Amino acid sequence: MTGRPAPAVLPPSLRPWLGLIAALAALVVVALGVLYADHSEPGVVDRWIIQPTADSLRPPWRYVALAMDFLGEPVGAATLVVAAVTGCLLLRRPRAAVLVVAGVGMAVGTATLLKSLVGRTIHDGNLSYPSGHTAFLTALALVMALQATGRLGLGRTAGTSLVLAAALVAGAAMGWAQVALGAHYPTDVLGGWCTALAVIPATAWLVDRMADRLVDRMAEAGRRERR
């Protein structure tokens, strides 16, 4: 098999730092989950931040928050994922397309599973920890930032900074909307953000590993056919 190998979705220069960040994020998710298991009231950290009611946000900011919230709903989320996958395929980055689907799916799936395990509720028993909306948008931003890092050839410092900045902006924007609309406690948002930070690097590493194995097997099959 000839040709240049497909670029990794998790740039090698970023793996040590993002691996450490993922481990720390996972610890935060677990710690908050244990702390707020089966709770139905805001915690101490939540009370430090003004907790609005669902109708306390006025236009035009309410419209902005509702638009952000829509991006985490099924239709909005599917639209973003399809657009991201299409962009990756047009740029001939099939691994990146796989990571969009697998990474975002794993982040949202993990958040959904944790909600059932933790059992924290808000407003008439709605499961709230961690925020799936925040996990989704943060995960998608992380995937896109990883691809930008690879295409631009950024080094460890610049690449890590770009990835974390993208995660922070996406998480803060969606997190603000969720808290402002009264849909989540602030610590739910933090848990969703950390869920994405923990899941995406691990999923990206797994996608690279599986893709490399597939390429090796195809190369070996090609060599056997030529014998």
Notes on the structure:
The protein is an all-alpha fold and 227 residues long. It is 73% helix and 2% strand. The chain contains eight helices and two strands, in the order H-H-H-H-H-E-E-H-H-H. It has a two-stranded antiparallel ribbon. Helix 6 packs antiparallel against helix 7. 40% of the residues are buried.
Keywords:
227 residues; 8 helices; mainly alpha; 2% strand; two-stranded antiparallel sheet; elongated
Structural class: mainly alpha
Q: Name the helicity range.
A: over 70%
- State the total count of DSSP E strands: 2
Low-confidence stretches: none
Shape: elongated
Q: SSE order in H/E notation?
A: HHHHHEEHHH
Binned strand content: under 5%
Task: Quickly count the helices.
Answer: 8
Order of strands, widest sheet: 1-2
Overall mean pLDDT: 91
Biggest pleated sheet: 2 strands, antiparallel
Give the SSE map.
Blueprint: H1 15-35, H2 44-48, H3 61-71, H4 74-90, H5 94-118, E1 121-122, E2 126-127, H6 132-152, H7 156-180, H8 186-226
Antiparallel strand pairs: 1-2
Helix pairs in contact: 1-8, 3-7, 4-5, 5-6, 5-8, 6-7, 6-8, 7-8
Write a short abstract of this structure.
The protein has 227 residues and is mainly alpha-helical. Helix content is 73%, strand content 2%.
